[in-house]
Amino acid sequence: MRLTVVAIALGLVALTSGAYYPPSQPVTGVKYADKDFLYKQKFFFEVLRNIHLPLQFQEYLPYTKSYIADSSKYVNFEEVTEFFNYYKAGFLGKGELFSIYNKEYMTQTYLLFNFFYNSIDFDTFYKNVVFARENVNEGIFIHALTLAVFHHPELKGFVLPAIYEIYPYYFFNTDVIHSVTFRKQYDQKFGFTSNGKYNVVYDNYTATYPIDYYGEEKLAYFTEDIGLNAYYYYFMMDYPYFLGTDKYNFSKDRRGELYLYMYQQLIARYYLERQANFLGPIEEFDYDFPLKTGYWSKLSYYNGIPFFVRNDYYSFSKDFYYQVTLLKDYEQRFRQVIDKGYYYLEDGSKIDLRQPESVEYLGNMMFSNPDSVDNYYFGFFEMIARQVYSGGAKFYKYVPSALMHFETSLRDPFFYQLYNRFLTFYYQFKSYLKPYTYEELYFKGVEIKSVAFEKLMTYFEYFDAEVSNVVPIKASGEKFFDFSVFARQKRINHKPFSYTMDVYSEFAGKGVVRVYMGPKFYDFKDLQYVKKYFVEVDQYQYDFVTGKNTIVRNSRDFYYSVRDRTTYTELYKKIMTAYSGGEKFVLDNSEAHCGFPDRLLLPKGLPSGYEMTFYFIVTPYYAPKVPQFSTYDNTYQCGVGSGSKYIDDLPFGYPFDRDIDFSYFYTKNMYFKDVFIYHSEEIKPYVPYHAVEETPYVPY
């Protein structure tokens, strides 16, 4: 039985898809926040506290009635004027249901973001934020403020509370929210730190309800994981589909290719979890037939209205025929353009889709962002698909489904079916590229001799995440943070493990190691079909010496994995301690937002062992166009739009991103290693990462 426990606790650390700091590039020296930084940092935590309640901090109240209208206070007043005019005409009201995939609400979010972004200084910015906090719809406000913090050059590096703690309604089932608020009504001591350890309320995971989604409910521990859903939310806020052009420099990060690779990796990781639960391949669907897989999220909005429920064998009404026809037309256009191999722009220039770098065009076209070459022809494919499978306009406008939010999309099994279908265009594009040649695969003079793993073990543990923002309390200033409620939930994790790789090299110099994890296959040529289900779990640069090189790598150091975040209240108190002259506040990436949760690295094993395959490849170091970390401070920033995020210049997914020529593919600088993943049935208490690191790891 999967249990969710709501507990009052203090000083516990909660899960997030927090930040990643590449271990291959160690930080030299420690940076501390100064008084000005801390003042701004505490501001963000205070305006996001209890978002549905009026602000209780006296210092901000004078700015709640009006915004700054002085044109000299803005960088681009024309964009700000557009917000003024739209706001006067009418924004979505406070307390009403918001969806980022509603074009009207997305436009309002974009305009409010521009209003924040164009502030000439922080004084103007924070006064306008306070005004919006009190007068603009909560969903629009959270999205616009998050975008401003992530993308304004002067705000990058500031920390926001984890999104599941800002707005728990999108991450915790209705019965959890109800239990917390109900308990507070009859127990006035509930939630205050002096009484914390005595307050526990039990509730259930979605999978415990007597509903069968054709086996999909077995994956609730994965698809409903708040870290996984936060990861997707943060990626979509780093590269939102409605922002683009040279203003934000997303193209420097290979945005189109990155989008496609992110979805391919997400679908691959989901596929591996399906296989571990014996669910078979991802279901396919057809626009002309009822959708077999229904979904009831068990989530409710702030006002108590439940999320839209899609019944099994969901069918379109005749009102949807036009939108469904559009989807078919857009798909046909993508396939035709890919098959032709070129596309002409309005100015007559030609895009050659037989060139590997044209994947950037394809990604932008598929996701209809402002960097796309022709959104009118290729349409808002993704948005329309989400809308028609969310009940159409009469529902998605008023009762949005899980598909209509970044925060909840991954909970719906249909999300994976939909994007698995979208990725067929990606695979179609890649199928026209020539297989990598022997010279492009082989690293002369380098041979991987052996790889050995410690025992791989998964298990469930309890963890705590703060849900205080769902409880309406009347307090002033810092007293808000004397109240802390935590949801304790069972989650999947794995024991830290290491692998040892022996590499013989005939040269001394830099190389790059890539590590993939995928399904076990028995005929080598099956790799042609299963390579799309291999997940890249690690990538790092290594300085090889002549002769034997023994590399020992721990899972805690994997390139893409991130660790748990500090809870809302605990982090706020650290900020205030430093602000008051106490212990200093360290600026590092431990609280940033970019990365995939470390604990979801491995799919759930079996008591008897679940067999999988790891793939290793060592390549020469192909220097990126912009040296890694050269254009941003990687000690506490994520580098979005910097152009210097990547270790080398090889395509994402290399060498599995193209068809394989098996006559020469398996070179000496590659290695396949079969492993077993075991699972312990013992449910363990939650232990924060810092506690784990203080205790030496003893391998099995």
Tell me about this structure.
The protein has helices at residues 35-47, 77-89, 103-117, 122-135, 138-151, 163-166, 174-186, 220-223, 226-238, 255-276, 321-340, 359-366, 375-378, 381-388, 393-396, 413-431, 438-441, 527-530, 568-579, 689-694; strands at 3-7, 13-14, 31-32, 200-204, 342-344, 350-352, 446-453, 456-466, 486-494, 498-505, 509-519, 535-544, 547-554, 561-562, 565-566, 586-587, 596-597, 610-620, 670-679. It has 700 residues and is an alpha+beta fold. An eight-stranded mixed sheet has the order 4-1-9-8-19-18-11-12. A hairpin with a 5-residue loop joins strand 5 (342-344) and strand 6. It is globular and about 70 Å long. The two termini are 28 Å apart. Residues 1-28 and 689-700 have low confidence and may be disordered.
What would the keywords be for this entry?
alpha+beta; eight-stranded mixed beta sheet
Poorly predicted ranges? 1-28, 689-700
- What is the 3D form? globular
Main sheet: strands, sense, barrel? 8 strands, mixed
Number of strands: 19
The neighbouring-strand order within the major sheet is 4-1-9-8-19-18-11-12
Q: Give Rg in angstroms.
A: 25 Å
Distance between the termini: 28 Å
Strand content: 15-25%
Kindly name the structural category: alpha+beta
Please estimate the helix content.
25-40%
Average pLDDT level: 88
Number of helical segments? 20
